[in-house]
Amino acid sequence: MKRKVSSGFKQYMIFLIFIALIIVFSIISPAFFAVGNAMNIIRQISMMGIVTVGFTFVLIGGGLDLSVGSQIAIMNIIICYLIINMGINPILALIIGIAFTTLIGTFNGFVISRTGIPPLIATLAMQTALRGAAFVISNGYPMYGIPDYLKTIGQGNLFGFFPIPGLIMIAVIVFGIVLLNKTYIGRHFYALGSNEEALRLTGVNTHFTRVLTYALLGFLTGIAGIVMLCRTGSGQPNIANSFEMDVLTAAVLGGVSVNGGKGSIAGAIIGAAIIGVLNNGMSIMGANDYWQQIIKGIVLLAVVVFDSFGRSGKKAPKAA
User: Fold this and answer.
1) Quick check: pTM over 0.85?
2) Where are the transmembrane segments (predicted)?
3) How far apart are CA 15 and CA 33, in angstroms?
4) How many angstroms separate the Cα of 12 from the Cα of each of 31, 66, 135, 255, 297?
5) Which of 257, 260, 271, 300 is deepest in the core (most CB within 10 A)?
């Protein structure tokens, strides 16, 4: 009962932090509270929100994937190469791109599950290899030439108002909530992160379950990558650099435990919204990217420490 109340308190605190940030930035700059800026924030966080849903699956299952940013980069380069250099139908190229990131996610999950390599090491190696491959294929230069009609996916608005990337994010959020809360697959994800051995003894294939979390993350990373490609209008080898840290910060800030077995899609998306509001608000205030990185790093460290003490039941040491 005590844990349930504590979890609920954390959720309320996360939401209150989100509201407080909106109020503070609105007071500092009236332009922040404008409808146009709100739509801009939704467009900005859509890609992070989509990947955060998949990242939540992996974290709840007790895993970690630091290669999602590099997956987006190599996928964008491959799609542009297929369209521009090989003349492949753009829609088919997008499908191939999603299939590619899904395959990478599946491979990550398979290697981690079957070899026992720590997820941090395995996915960090994949991150480095994929980023290097993106630069090799593109020779280090952006690739231009995707059709204008594809750019609607990343730049268009529904009825001239609501960003299409936001609609895609909402659809992914609904998918994630249903999967985690209404299916046995979601229950298996939670059990995998809480007690993998107990799940195995019930007859569930824990190897398949773990691989599935990474495959779903790869699939959703592909969707986010398409939105990013269609928003920028070009394939860039250095795109989504450090993107995985934003996603990790959003998920953990939203209450998803780095130790696995705990978290929700709703909380993770609020965490993504907080990161988006921070980025947007600090940009309006004139803060450069370096200060934004410092603040996000501090936020990530704080929430991980808080989660660790909460999971172990220990209290933070008092200052001398």
Assistant:
1) yes
2) 12-33, 45-62, 117-137, 158-180, 211-230, 251-278, 290-309
3) 18
4) 27, 29, 43, 11, 22
5) 271
